[in-house]
Amino acid sequence: MTLEFKPIVLFGGAITADFPNGYLDVSNIREVPDHQEIYLDASGFSSVIIEIAERVTQPPTDEEALKFHFEDIVDDNDTSKIWHTDLVHLPRFPPDTPCYNLLATTTPPPLSNDNAARPLTPTFTAVILALIRLPLQSTDIVVTVNIPHIPGQQEPLNANVNFEEGNFGSLVEEGMRIRDEILKSLEVKDWGLFGPAEE
């Protein structure tokens, strides 16, 4: 499937980014915290979350902060594994702005007899996370693309998925493209969103 993107206004116009057509603003159907923007794929199960968070200073390194933000969104009962991390460039941010990417999976515990009949429980969820660090604003921007893999709902898109062998499947590859397009287009229009800059 060919993805097409359109510019989206976020956080009252303070930030803009390109999102895929067909992703819908969750705030139109339920309340969303002021520090988050959440969009859902109207024809599937994927979601995109952009969060404005207080800058993590403990743990002290950027790489550890990336893992901290990932672990913060993982359910305590899930098993998680980080498959890949890298550093990327943000064309519409100051040139020294650090941005780190992470590809991981989370796997829920085995279904018990009480919930074995739930039809849309994912076998695992691919988490594609980017962390943008803004030290002068004491802010971390976290961009997360969640790709649940639900048996019987997405084949042949999930066929032959094997993270160990680097075969992520077309759904995850699509999610990585969504992340890349968001990061390429993401732009802060009003830096006052983050409050006064530190000296």
Q: How would you characterize the overall build of this protein?
A:
This protein is α+β, with helices and mostly antiparallel strands and 199 residues long. 15% of the residues lie in helices and 36% in strands. It is built from two helices and ten strands, in the order E-E-E-E-E-H-E-E-E-E-H-E. The protein has a seven-stranded antiparallel beta sheet, with helices on both faces. It has a three-stranded antiparallel beta sheet with strand order 1-2-10. The N and C termini lie far apart (47 Å). The model has no long low-confidence stretch (mean pLDDT 89).
Strands ordered across the widest β-sheet: 3-4-5-9-8-7-6
**What's the average pLDDT?**
89
Structural class: alpha+beta
Number of strands: 10
Overall, the morphology is globular
Range of helix content: 10-25%
What descriptors fit this protein?
199 residues; alpha+beta; 36% strand
Walk me through the topology:
Layout: E1 5-10, E2 15-20, E3 23-25, E4 36-41, E5 47-54, H1 62-73, E6 79-87, E7 99-107, E8 124-134, E9 139-149, H2 169-185, E10 187-188
Antiparallel strand pairs: 1-2, 2-10, 3-4, 4-5, 5-9, 6-7, 7-8, 8-9
Could you provide a short overview of the structure?
This protein is about 15% helix and about 35% strand. It is of the alpha+beta class and about 200 residues long.
